[in-house]
Amino acid sequence: MAYALATERLHDGTERSTGRSSWKALRRAAGRNLRAHAFLFGALVCFALFTWYPMVREIIMSFQRVHRGQTTWVGLGNYRQITADPEFWQAWRNTAEFTALALVFGFAAPFCVAIVVNEFRHAQGYLRILVYLPVMLPPVAGILLFKYFMDPGFGLFNQALHFLHLPRSQWLASKSSSMPSLVVVSTWSNMGTATLVYLAALQGIPGDLYEAAELDGCNVLQRIRHVTIPQTRLILSLMAMLQIVATMQMFTEAFVLTGGGPEGSTTTVVYLLYNYAFSYNKFNTAAALGVIMLLVLACFSAIYIVLERRGSED
Amino acid sequence: MTQLRIQRALDARNRFHSQRLKAPETYHRTLISRTQLNTVRGKRLYWIALTVALALATLVFIGPLFWMATGGFKTSQELVRNPPVLLPAHPSTHAFNLAWNRLGMAQLLWNTIVYAGGALAFQLIFCVTAAYSLSKLRPIFGNWILGLMLASMMIPAAALVIPQYLTVLDLPLVHWNLQNTPWVIWLPTVANAFNVFLLKRFFDSIPNDLLDAAAVDGAGPLRTLWRIVLPLSRPILGVISIFAVVAVWKDFLWPLITVPAHETLNVGVNTAATSMPDNALVGGLFLASIPTIVLFLIFQRNIMSGLTAGAVKG
Question: Looking at the complex, does the CB of residue A53 fall below 8 Å from at least one CB of chain B?
Fold first, then answer.
């Protein structure tokens, strides 16, 4: 109980000494702080080593160049070099294409699936498991599988198209269809997460809103437009932001399936970063690319955080 | 005669009870009202839609898995035959054996388990103690540290890969090279702001009175954490554990560059993909998928509820 006499409030941090023997209280406070920081220590070291320090280091690196072990400052040299590379612009175009397509498909598909599944009274659990199953596959397994499905010769997709009397596609082998094909792969393997989040959001919509809309003479599509979408708007916009940030970092699909080809049509920004560092051995130029990427994606993340804050205030 | 009557009465009672037991399903109105569904036409449409949805979902999400599993039993010629073969004519496990041996699947699996298990342990220890410290011990500068951690959530993982890679090659101050050791996977996973944030929010909801009572009883912070906070936090710990394991299991770029000598399942399968016969590769993909699918089927309830808890943050 002596402890309680010397200080007020134990756990909220704003403890004040009650005047009696303030020196003792100070020492106790210092001891408590030391202990609290000891609890923080492990995580703090990891954050410092693998997040904060690399962050600073990347920015410094991007202004330097290393030549035969000699580090020199080159100002914006790396940035000039990377932006002068036609591959850089190509990579951003590719990434933008992938992100836009992935947003259209990867966004619409889970939402539609969630709306439909939410209407069913039977087999909901089964459908949920099915949709989420690909998310749990090791990505390389899910991705390599599509190499067979998308083969221009014997692939199942082309056989299905042929069966339906539709024109065959070159899928990954042609410049124009390679990126959309990657979007198909990525949507298949990732849509489960978004679907489940939407399902949870849909179940939170009060039923009387639909009731009221129906009494006002709305048909099903109008009910989706005037009730479902406004009621889930916040989740929709959050997921859109998350998805933009995630898809702009696409790497595995392109690395495993196309190797950036054909003719550089699937070289994404992360892929280019990887190439600069590990194929051309230009770590500093890669760092400059990393900083650019960071700035671009940080804009989207900032929007996300603002949206989220507004969401938690509601 | 009486027997028949008794039988009938019993039947009636059973029917009544089974109805009573089945009934109290809470009705939550969705897009389409139940009265609309209960018309003859509505019922018919509902069952048609459900059947189509089930068939389609099974085809889209189980179909590829089925193809993968049966593909391993086929010969390479059968696998790529046009039109496709549904079931192998002469099923043989030869391809699975070949995949297991050629890929060194046992070693790959073991590596991945070691990486995932260690990452789980480190995250549980360091993220939990950090969150506990930030939430309950409230050290000086705690809010600043939390802010810095959360700020790192804005940094896209792929943009920091280069300086992180250079950092693990030569750790600052101690100059250790972590490449090809499990530490290179384990330690960076601790720097997960989302985990710390989720845990801290959960700990915040544990009443301080409980901890005060423990303190009065003479328990130190470690004992309080172990005996009071952790038992109360089982649900959130489960969520974090699952995501910790799955994240390591699914990662590709980081293990690709940091542990080339002790590959993960993902990286190993991708490396060997070009040098294997088709049926062995497909069989290998299936073998590689089994662990996470089993994990998912066991923990699917927790995984799915954790997913929505993490995303919606209700």
Answer: yes
**What backbone torsions phi and psi does residue A69 show, to the nearest 5 degrees?**
75, -5
Least Cα distance to A289 among A260, A269, A268, A261 occurs for A269
- Roughly what angle, to the nearest 10 degrees, separates helices B161-169 and B183-190? 130
CB contact (8 A) between residue B158 and residue A273: yes
Question: Which A residues in the span 250-289 are in contact with B, Cβ-Cβ below 8 Å?
Answer: 251-252, 255-256, 270, 273-274, 277-278, 283, 286-287
Least CB–CB distance from B133: residue in A36, A119, A305: A36
The residue to which tokens 């993982």 are assigned = B157
Contact between A114 and A202 under an 8 Å Cβ cutoff? The reply is: yes
Question: Tens digits of per-residue pLDDT, A234-252?
Answer: 888 888 888 888 899 999 9
CA atoms within 13 Å, Cβ hemisphere of A139: 23
> Which residue stretches of B58-192 are H helix?
63-71, 76-79, 94-103, 105-122, 128-132, 142-151, 161-169, 183-190
The H or E element that residue A201 is part of is helix A178-203
* ipTM confidence: 0.83
Stretch B106-115: mean pLDDT: 92
Contact yes or no for B61 and A301 at CB 8 A = no
Q: Which of A193, A239, A287 sits opposite B163 (nearest CB)?
A: A287
